[in-house]
Amino acid sequence: MSSETKQILTTDGIPLEISLKKAERKNKIKAFLLVAPLLLFLIITYVFPIGEMFTRSIDDKMITNMLPKTFKSMEQWDGKELPSEEVFASFLSDFKILVENKKHGKLAQRLNKEKNGFTSVVKKLFRQVKRNKIDETQNIKEQIMKVHKRWRDVEYWQAIKRTAPPYTSAKYLKAMDMYLNEDNKIVQVSEDRRIHRILWLRTVEVAFFVTVFCFLMGYPIAHLLATLPMKYSNLLMICVLLPFWTSLLVRTASWMILLQQQGVVNDFFVIIGLVSDDNRPEMMYNKVGTYVAMTQILLPFMVLPLYSVMKTISPSLMRAGKSLGGTPFVAFWKVYFPLTIPGIGAGCLLVFILAIGYYITPALVGGASGTLISNQIAYHMKTTLDWSFASAMGLMLLGGVLVIYWLYNKLVGVDNIKLG
Amino acid sequence: MALPKYTETRYRIWHYFYIAICSLVFIFLIAPLFVIFPLSFNAEEFLVFSEGMKNLDPDAFSLRWYKDMVYGTKNPWGLAAKNSFIIAIFATLGSVILGTVAALGLSSRHMPFKGIIMATLISPMIVPLIISGVAIFFFMAKAGLAATHTGIVLAHIILGTPFVVITVTATLSGFDHSVTRAAASLGSNPVNTFMKVTLPLILPGVISGGLFAFVTSFDEVVVVLFLAGLENTTIPVQMWTGLREQLSPTILSVATCLIVLSTLILISAELLRRRSERLRGINR
Question: Which of B8, B24, B25, B121 would best serve as a mutation to test chain A binding (most A beta carbons within 10 A)?
Fold first, then answer.
């Protein structure tokens, strides 16, 4: 059978297959053009800036641009003994340009971060250069070494060499309380200065327990909402939806009022005799406050997906389980519970993702022991202005969230997210 | 949920235990919102229930903090409310237009790379706000839009579109495409078909997406904290500063107003959802 005999033509004589493909392509372009404005907008204002966070977090070009000749001549240097005259000479010429542009202070600052003691060394050299004390026709190495004894110390030259690469992983290491030492090995900072690892662990811990609490509280009420007759469940649903629609700050404010030492919860504890009036426990500005407030705030995000799954489970399944001899508990555990697993997955992942990036509530009710990694990011963005460090921590957090997002997509599918 | 007569005692006990647990959780969810109401009418300036309030003494209650909210000297709430509404309205308009158009494309079965594009469009909802805040701040600073209304509106469009995309795609999933073909066969052009046929049918979804976008913008504080200057302060930013610094009962009056607003939004969202389900012929 030859293909020509089987070919079907459209009325204008074009083979049907080609004509269909053409129409298909046209439709594809049409659909894509509809999505294009939003996609472009998001790529420019959102996706690229996140990429920029990455370049910012590894960027270390400042010194690379300050000492170009030095690093070029250092390429030959083995880094074991003091560098050659050539390195000293090019360092001096780089340094003179910096002095002219009044940038030597920045150099000293950055080098001091790499190795303590650079500030005074650079300052001394600056004074000599300013007074034109260094004669370029003589041996420059000898002269510089005379300026300060540390210029005779090879460790300081090694430190300069370490700042040569335009990119650095230092910010990421710092976020895990580690740094690169003189021998280019990753080591941990001293124990009393390990603050970030505690924050990461606490963030995961808080997110995990908030998810568990939300699940333990959300499952029964989602079940009740799904099994009650419509007229009651609609009324009770308001208890879930009203907090959901209410401003986060309003809800945090109400927890601040409830949990304070003279607050309603403490009053209640005193009345029922749990604690004495002069010994009211501190429930805010610590982890307890963070847990309680975050659980209440995120609970609707657990209940809604659970409810929408439970709503589809026919009550006759439980009846069937019971009629086949299962006790209510067995019927629940063997029949009902497995059917709700998609909802559990959706709710838990949603709550976990939201909790791990929480900022406002921990900052207000968390105090020092209840703050999370997001608070640290905000602190570096707004107070220390170390934006590259904030970017590095932000991207590490994002990495974690994307893994969970990917899992979520695999298990539930993003297009299955239901809102209200 | 009446129990059948033959229920054994232990299951009966378990059932009441279960109801009790559920009631406690419902109280846990809703009660914090109701603490704010009485305290906002406090005559004193502490954020605790005074003895007078516990005894329901009428003198212990006053509208003092509401007056302070509206007429107080140097009070920031007027400007904040104005900014909040302006920003939220424009952000909602932007999100609804961009999001609805994108959802129309995404629901077409011809859409190429649907998965990855959908994931990108939804990502601002999933990425922690603090990271979005940092990224958007870098962009706005570079574009010279930091500390401007335009910058904040654009930022809120980014954060609001995912909600519109999700709700409108959901509405379109039950949409009968033969009606648009019918319109086309009757000689209507695509724009006319959209305005006269598609839009009225998906309108509940569009509006409820818009409500989400509005609330997102109206309630958003993290990104605004990065972007806003003194003139761009919004209600959430003012509340944030108030809660961190001087805890004045005026905040509670504002909070009460916000709860009333969210109740109104909840009612409209609920009505829309029911209407949408009716239009799509879903009966549950």
Answer: B25
